[in-house]
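Allow me, if you will, to draw on your knowledge of protein folds for a short while. Thank you for your consideration; the sequence and its tokens are set out here:
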Amino acid sequence: KELLVEISGTTVTVTCPSLEPPVSWRVNDEQKSNETKLVLQDPENFPLNITCSSKERRAEMYLNAKVCANCEELDALAVAGIITADLLITFGVLILVYYFSKDRKGRASTSAGSRPRGQKMQRPPPVPNPDYEPIRKGQREVYAGLESRGF
């Protein structure tokens, strides 16, 4: 049978399988205790080679674990609940953003020059930019200073 390991905070408890007392424990070739359970407080020298033996049986284990004082134990139901709540909140925010931005998508900006449009009114052509107007007859003096350079 296998050894049973329980880790809680900084305490590691190893239970020997059904062996008849007396039970002797060896941790990294060092004699520890003679009880059915081995309790290690604040173990710092992982990995450990743990051996549990009685008169006729012996169980060995290689243990490499991390323990910490500030760790919290969560069961699977609590983790599933946290993930589900996070997803619901995220989808709720996405839906709110979608509905509030959907109304503004087709609206014109509220500037001074905006006016309500009628049904399929035609827009006038855009006003040409005076900086880029074509040269007309009689207006050559405006552009007289811009002579072509010989390169």
Observations:
- The radius of gyration is 41 Å.
- Residues 75 and 134 are 77 Å apart (CA to CA).
- The chain has one helix and seven strands.
- Residues 74-104 form one domain.
